[in-house]
Design a protein that fits this description.
With 370 residues, this protein is mainly β. 3% of the residues lie in helices and 55% in strands. It is built from 2 helices and 26 strands. The strands form 6 sheets. Strands 20-21-24-23-22-25-26 form a 7-stranded antiparallel β-sheet, with no helix packed on it. A hairpin with a 4-residue loop joins strand 3 and strand 4.
Length: 370
């Protein structure tokens, strides 16, 4: 016997997906490390996928860390987003690995859901002395390089060294594994490249260094399309029988040939904050190679006159957007009055416009003074 769940959704005018932040907090995990805890609620009769991330900035607006929040389901599946059913509340968590010393911080929460809708919130946070345990998490090992990126011709080969230094006073054991960007990722490096890792003994003594060699070899398959192929090598650290943590090295392999750059603008969000109008644009990479785009948002009135020209850049902590994935471009400008405007958006990669759209933009309220 099998049980099959069938969900029927009947569209009607005015029925739109909506998400609500039931709670969000910077708290502590069982070891006293900083933990971001989000509960997202779906108050509508529609189901949708939702993903969340946080950036933490200090009082000087310097980026401390970008933390991707995940649910238990997304951690198990390897996917970034989690499906939220009507009426459900889902918990997302993420551990902050960078030290948070006493002081003032600006915590920015980004929620993306239902293919183009967004929630962007900012939270001022004060960290008190002794509030968090400042552990060595994320700093026990030093890995170089941060990312392996090579360009190969069909049949080409490249050997890359991963330098791993044990910064602890105790020895540890290393175990290596390969991981896709997400399940069934269409541009998986493991489908295009034969990969071999040669490593010495798994034991790494205190303050010592090892240099595993990663060999990447492409086939001569004429059907293998040019462009980028991506994946991860994970380095798992243990002490005795106890798992400690995992370090990740992204792998970028570019097959030589003409690459296709393209982007789709999924959604736009705006809000007033600290005397500025901020704009957040979600962009999906629909090409076959990673992009590091910038953009421009032209805010127009009902007559088509340009009122504001807003430069857009990738959100802090993000270097690029991989094919088939999405990212956020952010910009800010002078406050505007409430009303309905038109936003013309252009996405640019290497001085080439790879995506453009015009959408209505509803600005409901200006920031209150005081």
């Amino acid at each position: 016997r099998y049980a099959v769940r069938v969900n029927l959704f009947i569209e009607r005018p005015g029925l739109r997906p909506r998400a609500e932040i039931a709670s969000f907090d910077l708290t502590s995990d069982e070891e006293g490390n900083p933990l971001l805890d989000l509960v997202l609620r779906n108050p509508t009769p529609l189901m949708y996928d939702a993903a969340a991330e946080v950036t933490i900035h200090d009082s000087e607006r310097r980026l401390i860390q970008r933390v991707r929040l995940a649910t238990e389901a997304s951690r198990q599946s390897g996917r970034e987003a989690t499906r939220i059913y009507p009426g459900a509340e889902v918990q997302y968590t993420g551990v902050v690995t960078e030290p948070l010393f006493p002081g003032e911080y600006d915590v920015r929460l980004y929620v993306r859901y239902a293919d183009g809708l967004q929630i962007v919130q900012r939270y001022p946070v004060t960290v008190e002395p002794g509030q968090f345990v400042q552990t060595e998490r994320g700093n026990r090992l030093r890995l170089q390089p941060d990312r392996i990126a090579v360009t190969l011709r069909p049949g080409g080969i490249s050997s890359q060294v991963i330098q791993i230094e044990n910064r602890m006073q105790e020895s540890c054991s290393l175990r290596f594994s390969a991981r896709d960007i997400e399940p069934e990722y269409p541009r998986s490096v493991f489908a295009a490249v034969e990969m071999q890792l040669r490593a010495p003994s798994p034991e790494l003594e205190p303050r010592r260094m090892v240099r595993p060699v990663l060999t990447l070899r492409t086939s001569r398959d004429a059907d293998l399309a040019p462009g980028g192929y991506y994946g991860y090598v994970d380095v798992h650290v243990s002490q005795g029988e106890t798992y400690v943590e995992t370090y990740t090295v992204p792998i970028y392999v570019i097959l030589d040939g003409p690459a296709h750059y393209a982007a789709e603008i999924i959604g736009v969000h705006t809000e007033a904050f600290e005397g500025e109008q901020t704009y957040t644009v979600e962009v999906r990479n629909t090409g076959d190679i990673h992009i590091s785009p910038r953009g421009t948002l032209y805010l127009k009135d009902e007559s088509g006159t340009i009122l504001r020209t807003i430069p857009l850049v990738l959100q802090p902590g993000v270097d690029d957007i991989l094919p088939n994935l999405s990212g956020l471009l952010i910009g800010s400008g002078v406050l505007v009055d409430p009303g309905v405007y038109t936003a013309e958006i252009r996405i640019i990669e290497q001085d080439q416009v790879i995506g453009t759209t015009e959408v209505p933009l509803h600005i409901e309220t200006a920031e209150e003074e005081g």
